[in-house]
Amino acid sequence: MKKILITGVSKGLGWGIAQYFLNEGFKVLGISRGILEDLNKNENFKHLALDLSDLSSIQPSVKKFLADEGDLEYIVLNAGMLGEIKDLQETSMEDLKTLMDVNVWSNKELLDTVFTQPSKVKQVVAISSGASINGNRGWGGYSISKAALNMMIKLYAAEKEAVHFNTLAPGLIDTGMQDYLCGEVDESKFESTLRLKAAKGTSSMPKPKEAGVIIGKAIPKLIEYQSGDYVDVRKM
Q1: What pLDDT, in 10s, does the model give residues 150-205?
Q2: Would you give the DSSP letter of residue 234?
Q3: Which run of H or of E encompasses 114?
């Protein structure tokens, strides 16, 4: 049975991707702080409860979690946090550090742990965002962390030639993050949210389960792209 490791499976896109690959007959190894009961009911799902902001806990926890699992077809680095939409000047260094820890350095810790194991990995896909290249006002720490993630994956691609790496922008997805962006952010100050509000409730912003199918189908196709490339799923 093929195996996939996915972070951030408790909700949103990570949950949707997990559902897709379970339906495709994979064993899904999921990492998140919590978990929904529907995943735990599937005999091909295995869960590790882990707070990825606690960097020192990743290596021992993941090493034990994967000890008897063997080769991985895919690793999907999906877990991440948005932070508050506000001007960069108003964002504290503490908040920026937290965003970098979760969105970048936790992924480094996880990958370094996996790569010290004898098992092989075919593909690594890190979920990025259009925010990593757009530079829209208010997205400060999130944009910086996702841009750093893009470069980190590109560097790993240069170092680990036997593994295929990509960062993937998944497009708009109707999650709790969108509820915040569309309901609490001042659109007159942060105009990029206007596009999100217009898309909410339309086919341009699918629900997590639908988005999981879109991303799940895209992941194998990423092998056709240069290892290390940033890819937008809407342009595949």
Answers
A1: 999 999 999 999 999 999 999 999 888 788 887 787 777 888 888 888 888 888 89
A2: G
A3: helix 106-115
pTM: 0.95
Give the residues across from 77 on adjacent strands: 126
Report residue 194 as tokens.
Answer: 């206007």
Buried b (16+ CB within 10 A) or exposed e, 160-182: beebbbbbbbbbbbbbebbeebb
Mean predicted lDDT score pLDDT of the chain: 94
Instruction: Report strand pairing: 3-7 vs 27-32.
Output: parallel
Residue 189: what pLDDT?
Answer: 85
**Coil, strand or helix: which one is 73?**
strand
Q: Residue ranges of the domains in the chain? A: 3-174+206-235
In CATH terms, the superfamily for domain 3-174+206-235 is NAD(P)-binding Rossmann-like Domain (3.40.50.720)
Start-to-end CA span in the chain (Å): 28
